[in-house]
Write a structure and sequence with these properties.
- There is one protein chain.
- The chain is of the alpha/beta class and about 450 residues long.
- Among the domains are: about 40 residues; about 230 residues, CofD-like domains (Rossmann fold, 3-Layer(aba) Sandwich).
- About 45% of the residues lie in helices and about 10% in strands.
- The protein contains 17 helices and 10 strands.
- The strands form 2 sheets. Strands 3-2-1-7-8-9-10 form a 7-stranded parallel beta sheet, sandwiched between helices. A 3-stranded antiparallel beta sheet has the order 5-4-6.
- It starts with 7 loop residues before the first helix and ends with a helix.
- The N terminus is likely disordered.
Length: about 450
Amino acid sequence: MRFSPKFGSTLKWLIPGMGVKRWLLLLFVGITIVSLGVGYLLVDVYRTWTFPPVVFYLTLQFIPRVWRGLLFGVAGIAAITVAILQLNRSLLSAFRYPGQSSLVDIIYDHRQRTRGPKIVAIGGGTGLSALLRGLKEHTENITAIVTVADDGGSSGRLRRDLGLLPPGDFRNCIAALADDESLTARLFQYRFGEGETLNGHSFGNLFIAAMAAVTGNFERAILESSRVLNIRGRIVPSTLENVTLWAELRDDDEEAKGSGRVEGESKISEAGRPIERVFLEPDSVPGYPGAIKAILEADLIAAGPGSLFTSILPNLLVPGIASALNASPAVKVYVSNIATEEGETDHFALDDHLQALEEHVGQGLFTYVLANNSVTLEFPPHMKVEAVEPHTELGERYQLVGEDLVDLENPWQHAPHKLAEALMSLYWTVKARTVEETGAD
């Protein structure tokens, strides 16, 4: 529903679903009842008391009674309207951030997001953060399922020192879903650069570690940390078990040295050898119940973008997660990376990504593939990456959707708003087609 700029903010209050009209009506009824009560008292006073002549002019008794009533009614409504608007502005000014739109726009956007589809995003790293940053503008019904196999950097140190699940990807997701990505979110992402003890640690990781100690468990720590930043959605692990990611590497490089197996997510890409397969140890860990429930209730599930072998597959290798995905009636989308990843998917075409998925978790897990079709890109030479062409020869196993998803500042990454809009467009297109075919609402 569109309105002219002049009246848009006012008339937007009347849009169905805003949850305002019923209370405005109740307010009007209450004022009317009070006015009737006051009117009865004034009539009695008017009939029994004697007033000085000046009251005759102050109460406009020289004007016919009908016009007098209309005049007082209009003046009263104007006074009530001004009072309510100014009161709202005064009371709510403390809850609005600089640069935000009007109150009605904030409420309207919030109502639309709370009624948005239930979306599950699976992955880790910067790819998942970019997806969440875009999706939160469309819906608040978001569940991010995050891998717990990270063992590098600050997360790895906290994992080894405290026996904690790696908090890094959770921290990134919390910052991405924060309602106001300003000072608090930047503080959460701040990384210490000096001192032997704190060097390399991010404030958010330390915050989550401290919260886990205070609350008694990692799950509660993520929940409470999410509340601190007032995130839109929730973040859950794929499993609560302490798992290690292993990789089997191909030996087709004659100069390759060392074992054909690598232990630890952070060591896999460093090996610089083609990856045959990855697996979890232990391999039969239970899926986190909240993640499984979210998948089964989802309207849309997106896996990726992100590191194929070290961010996406570690989630899908949890048996309960894969089983829930197979059973879910949601629109299931694999989001292809824009570029290959050095040390992990070197020279991979789109089909190489899809075949790697199938070899690890079987066919049929995803119906749609969302790929970037703006491939006239130039990457920095030192990155040693290539564009992933949006083509597949896997027949009817996947429905390929191509969109311009490039972040112009970092062309090897997805633009959050482009990615989210492409996914939402795909979802609503599929839903409309399903309604048309089945006749269901």
